[in-house]
Amino acid sequence: MTRRRLLGIGGTLGLTAATGLSAAAALSRRPAATGAELRSAIPLPPAFRTPLPLPPVLKPVSTSGGVDRYKVTQREVKVEILPGVRTPMWTYEGTFPGPTIEARRGRPITVTHRNELPVPTVVHLHGGRNTPTPDGYPTDLVLPEAWPEPAGGTSAMHQMADMSLMDGMSAMSGPSGMAGMRDPRAVVTRLTRDYTFPTDQRPTMLWYHDHRMDFTAPAIWRGLAGLHFVRDDAEDALGLPAGAREVPLMIADRAFDSDGNLKYPALDPSLRDRPGVRESYLAGVLGDVILVNGAPWPVHEVDAARYRLRILNASNARHYELEAVTDDGRRLDLVQIGADQGLLAAPVTHRSLPIAPAERYDLIVDFTDVPGGDRVRIRNRLGAGRTRDVMAFRIARKAADDSRIPPVLARDLPSWHQSDAVRVREFAFRAGRMHGHHGWLIGGRPFDPARTDVTVNLGDVGVWRLIADVHHPVHLHLVGFQVLSRGGRQPLAHDAGLKDTISLRPGESAEIITRFDGYRGRYLFHCHNAEHEDMGMMANLEIG
User: Fold this and answer.
1) With 80 as the cut, is the pLDDT of residue 15 above it?
2) Same domain as 259, residue 227
3) Cβ neighbours, 10 Å, residue 489
4) Secondary structure of 82-109 as H, E, C letters
5) What angle do CA 299, 238, 513 make, to 5 degrees?
6) Per DSSP, what are the bridge partners of residue 482?
7) Is there a single domain that holds both residue 442 and residue 511?
8) One domain for residues 24 and 94
9) Which of 365, 248, 229, 238 is closest to 310 using CA atoms?
10) Is residue 369 part of a domain?
11) Which of 56-60, 169-173, 379-383 has the lowest mean pLDDT?
12) Which residues span the domain enclosing 457?
């Protein structure tokens, strides 16, 4: 068996099923890859020729009553991703990525989403501290206008989801498009839905994406993702690079067929009835084209100055280890100032930085000493061939720079201690069998929306021990957490700060601590390898 095959689905699932965690732990001694790569059938453009697009900022339709109101239409359009080629994509407001929302801490916003796509959708604001109603639970569907009405009828706001079992995964099934088991708490609307976010959280970069049960992976792949910033006065006063020198970077991989359409190995390309992917891709789908803000291997002109890079890995399954390399081979420092849930207490300097699906990093890169006309390439140390390149910056000119990196960034990080924990819980994230097929399980069980997996009291502090067989980026809804340890040792340098997603490496265990505060209700935790998520690797968290 080749090493590539061993690290793909066949080797990974075969070893895990045969010998359990010990064999998976052996994979941790090798460079970890999760998934199989799709190959594009169309000629691909050279790297560092396409200008980096910047997602448009969405303007509110109303700001009255202390609430900012936005409208977003989900629709299919043709987008120029590869130069000169029009690719059909599912979009928010006709762009990929979707438009960026800028929110101020403490000022609520309402986003009205209108679904003009051919399938139901769900919007999740990843990293948002929200009540359960707008959190984007996978069965809280927004149905298209022409979608068949679920059995029993549809009320304006509430719906008992009528569900049918399928011989397969947890699975949406049948023309009603509901999840593969009964969820008496599902809230279903037709055509539109208002998502109201209190914005009561630390300033940070969030992102919004589709979260429909069993079909999250292909929906994100087709384009349903966008950025959402929370700002406040304290962060604005720090003197960090701002304006044109703050650059959002959504990194995602894709593959294209010979006509320039997106390739994805869905069992049902219509995404209506049968979820899942072809067997070779059960561990995750990787593309051979690296997109940044929807452009292939782009280039961005910058001043010889400090820049703040707001980086999101929006890939379904691909992991990156990023480095910034000059034309003469020097590696620039990556100064981390923030994590998923906002600013760190103090800067942390890296030479390279791993980033898993759904993780975000807030970095400062200083181009001051790079000669004019030279490039700084952002490279992926985990990539091979063309996936080793991500994008480039070209230094255009000398310029004044009054920005700074304060030695103290934030003083509002929580100070939780293990002695405060009400309980220590353990969760194993592993491959397994689900309804007679391959699946991905938490604690040996696939997701069931009608089952409560964990119950905690509002305000409880808890320690969770997470155990992985292969690579799993684990995401908690509602709460941020701190990493206490990895494999019984100290956290890694990039674990600093408050996070909502932790990348578990093959065979690794990690301990995290959090306080379950904010709101009561039903939330999720799950793997953010989107194919794993669709094949059962989610669980319910009830805060009561």
Assistant:
1) no
2) no
3) 8
4) CCCCEEEEEEECCECCEEEEEEECCCCE
5) 90
6) 513
7) yes
8) no
9) 248
10) yes
11) 169-173
12) 418-543
Do the beta carbons of residue 482 and residue 510 sit within 8 Å? Answer: no
Share above pLDDT 90 across residues of the chain, in percent, rounded to a whole number: 85
Handedness of CA 63, 67, 73, 79 (dihedral sign): positive
Residue 17's φ and ψ, nearest 5 degrees, are -65, -35
Look at the chain and report how many structural domains it folds into. 4
Q: Which of 74, 426, 104 is nearest to 225 (CA)?
A: 74
Q: How confident is the model at residue 4 (pLDDT cuts 50, 70, 90)?
A: very low
Same domain, 247 and 349: yes
* pLDDT for the residue numbered 25: 41
Q: Is residue 114 part of a domain?
A: yes
In a domain, 110, yes or no: yes
Residue 486 · residue 492 · CB < 8 Å: yes
385: left (phi over 0), alpha (psi -120 to 50) or beta: left
At 436-463, the pLDDT tens digits run 888 999 999 999 999 999 999 999 999 9
Cβ atoms of 336 and 362 within 8 Å: the answer is yes
Encoding tokens for residue 244?
Answer: 């044109």
Whole-number pLDDT of residue 328: 95
Residues 204 and 249 both lie in one domain: no
What secondary structure letter does DSSP report for 494? G
How far is residue 136's CA from residue 520's CA, in Å, rounded to a whole number? 15
Query: Dihedral sign, CA of 108, 110, 111, 115?
Result: positive
Q: Cα-flanking dihedrals φ and ψ of residue 229, to 5°?
A: -100, 145
Q: CA–CA distance from 367 to each of 61, 333, 364, 370 (Å)?
A: 38, 10, 10, 5
Question: Which 8-state DSSP code applies to residue 393?
Answer: E
Is 254 a member of any domain?
yes
> CB-based contacts of 324: which residues, under 8 Å, 6+ apart?
331, 332, 334, 365, 376, 377, 378, 379
